[in-house]
Amino acid sequence: MKKALFAGLCALALMGCEASDEPDAQPPSSASAPMAFSAQPTTPTGALSSASAVQRVAGVPVTLLVSSPQTTSQGAILGETELAQLLIGNSIKQVDDQYWAYFGANGQLGGLLVNLTERGSYSLAGGQVCKSWPTWAAGTRLCYRVLNLGDARYRFSGIGVDSFDVVISRGNPQAL
Q: 69 and 32 in one domain?
C-alpha cells in the first residue's frame, strides 16, 4: 500500500510540477489524457508558439547570455584576462537563487538579492574575482576562482566561502 501511494504521489508530482517562466496558456489536461512533453511551448492546437518560444537558462533568455572566451574550455579555470572579458560590463545570475550582480567599470558592483539591492566593489587579480558588500556578508571580502562548466554556466568556486553556479548575462538587465 505504501509503495502504491508513493508511486502515485511521484507520478502526480511529475505531471503537475513542470517549471516554466511563462504562465499557463491553457488549463492542465485531465489525468486520463496521455502526457506529451515538448522543449518548446505550443498553442492549444499543438503548433509551436513563436511569441513564447524563448529558450532560457536559469531564467535568463539564451539571447542575453555571454559566450565563454575562446581560450577557455569546459572544466577550465578562467584567468584574469578571461574574467575581465566575461564579467566587466555584464551581470551574473545565480542558477539556484534570485541573486544578480552587475560588474561595472572601475570595480563598481551592483547587487540584487530577491528584492534587496546593494552597492559594493570587486577586483580581478591572480585569477580570482573578489567581491565586497558593505552590509551583505558584513563587508567581508569574498574571493572566488571561476570554472567554465560549459552550456553557458560557470561556477564561482569559493576560497574559504560557499561556491555557487551562475549564468552570465550581457549588460545590466536588472538596472543595478
A: no
